Amino acid sequence: MNEQNKHEKIDEKIEGYTLERQPGIEGEMDPKPIFEDDEYKGSGKLKDKVAIITGGDSGIGRAVAVAYAKEGANMVIAYLDEHDDANKTKEIVESYGVKCETYAFDVKKKAECEKLVKFTIDNFGKLNVLVNHAGVQYPTEDFLDIGEDQIRETFETNIYGIIFMSQAALPYLDKGDAIVNTTSVTAYRGSPGLIEYSATNGAITSFTRSLAGNLASKGIRVNGVAPGPIYTPLIPATFDAEKVEQHGGETPLGRRGQPSELAPSYVMLASNDSSYMTGQIIHVNGGDFMTT
């Protein structure tokens, strides 16, 4: 099976369904996203490192967790309340011989972010990589229909949580360690139906660049990944069946991406492969947004 067909095979079986919660349950999806590339072979790039991955229970977060495990990292998978997804990810991760703990929390609350980091230190004794991936999005076509509660929920989850997690983790990070933030293609091209979500990703991008400059003298790198249309639980939890079916079809590559196609970028930004990179964003979007 060639590379194009390998990642398209899941799209041939799409049937209409929606998940009426955020950020969605991977265990309820049919077909399931592709979270692991069997051709990806680890080489110890993260051996003995300890990572926290927020939103690590499913989707891109699960793919990152599995890739990190292949590279030798121990980790804490942090999530809201998707216990079955988190336990499944833990099972997969530990099959690669590393240690994984799960931790349910609310990323919007600073105290809970601090408890998550303390839990990590108590269980592993150190922290080397923070992946800020938890996020939500609520499509609203009419700008005037975006309510105050929706704005607060989106901003508090998507950007407040990243700030709180980064503040909690920083005292334990040292030279050579890394923070990797998930932003979005919407920060660059906008999205008329996801206005406040796009705004939060613009904030994440600017935060990434600013914190990178702030921490450069400490040797702590801060970078990000901006996914385009990727098949994760957030998609059927956000859009109706027709949009799920068409998701990603407008990209130059003509399809949506799979979580497994994002994971190598997160490995690079967490490892010494990116030792001369900070304040940068990697675009993985099928050509959805091209700069000159």
Q: What is the helix fraction of residues, given as a range?
A: 25-40%
The appropriate CATH architecture is 3-Layer(aba) Sandwich
How many discrete domains? Answer: 1
Structure classification:
alpha/beta
Arithmetic mean of pLDDT = 87
Biggest sheet record: 7 strands, parallel
CATH superfamily: NAD(P)-binding Rossmann-like Domain
Query: Any idea of the CATH topology?
Result: Rossmann fold
Q: What's the number of helices?
A: 10
**Terminal Cα span:** 33 Å
CATH class: Alpha Beta
Unreliable runs = 1-20
Overall radius of gyration: 18 Å
Based on DSSP secondary structure assignment, what is the total number of beta strands?
7
Shape: globular
Pfam families: adh_short_C2
Biased composition (Basic and acidic residues): 1-15
Catalytic activity: (S)-acetoin + NAD(+) = diacetyl + NADH + H(+)
Enzyme class: oxidoreductase
